[in-house]
Specification:
By secondary structure, the protein is mostly helical. It has one domain: Ferritin, CATH 1.20.1260. Helix content is 69%, strand content 1%. The protein is built from ten helices and two strands, in the order H-E-E-H-H-H-H-H-H-H-H-H. The chain has a two-stranded antiparallel ribbon. It is globular and about 60 Å long. The termini are close together.
Length: 267
């Protein structure tokens, strides 16, 4: 039986989410910049807090490396695609992921941050995660792209809800479906129809991906002080209480179950 997110209990992930910044949407113009760098177009008043800036750079860095990794994995999966049509579809999805990466990189430059330095802390944990969850075949690769990446995207969207408007919008747009949902659902359901036994194996794979993704989030949260500080807030910045965290976990679990159901798999 699948372990639900609410059963994970406390630990770094809960600490990571309790409590959070809640910056108001109003924007303010930045003073003239004579440094020669490309200035941000408009920045929220939140960016007057160096801790907030550091946390946003961390968050953009982790998502940017995730997009770059997604591009790399999809490009590799093209080799396993059984038909030219499938190869073309995956190549198209990979190009969309790379365009998302490009926008995140540009935002980091606007914030006067080195995009590659921002991504560097996340390379090792991400690469270790992908090593542990390397798909054995074409179908496992599809399920990973749909279920694993979907859970991560849900988690980042939840965090983005507490950020300034421009950063939040960029993150949400960067996490948009690259076309994999319809494609993956179609291919996996077709495979199960042709060979029903495949469904059991892929269901187990989907459950494993969920557990690994949650563990990955805990590790990243525990190791990045800036992200923890962002969501820790203060006296004038009330955050999520335990009930709100429980509802967050419930939403992540519900979305995961819906994806598994869409694939025709037991969650």
């Amino acid at each position: 039986m699948l372990t639900t997110i609410s059963e994970i209990g406390g630990g770094p992930l809960v600490d990571f989410l309790t409590p959070v910044y809640r910056y108001a949407p109003p924007m303010t113009e930045m003073p003239p910049d004579t440094s020669g760098r490309i200035p941000p177009r408009e920045l929220s008043v939140a960016f007057s807090d160096p801790g907030y800036v550091a946390a946003v750079v961390d968050l953009l860095g982790v998502i940017a490396y995730g997009e770059l990794s997604a591009f790399e994995r999809l490009a590799e999966d093209v080799k396993m695609a059984p038909s030219l049509e499938d190869k073309a579809a995956l190549a198209s999805m990979a190009s969309i992921e790379f365009s998302h990466f490009g926008r995140l990189r540009e935002r980091l430059v606007e914030l006067d941050a080195d995009p590659f330095a921002a991504m560097a802390p996340f390379k090792e944990p991400f690469d270790a995660f992908h090593t542990r969850t390397a798909p054995a075949d074409w179908l496992e690769g599809l399920v990973k792209a749909y279920v694993g990446d979907g859970l991560a995207a849900d988690f980042y969207r939840e965090i983005a809800a507490f950020l300034d408007v421009e950063t939040r919008t960029l993150i949400i747009e960067s996490l948009e479906d690259a076309g994999q949902s319809e494609f993956v659902v179609n291919r996996v359901r077709r495979a199960i129809e042709l060979e029903p036994r495949v469904g059991g194996r892929l269901a187990l794979w989907g459950r494993r991906l969920m557990g690994e993704a949650l563990s990955q989030a805990q590790r990243v949260a525990a190791e990045r002080d800036a992200l923890t500080a962002l969501l820790a807030g203060g006296v004038d910045r009330p955050g999520m209480d335990l009930a709100a965290i429980g509802r967050l976990f419930a939403r992540l679990t519900e979305n995961h179950n819906k994806r598994m159901e869409a694939l025709g798999l037991d969650s």
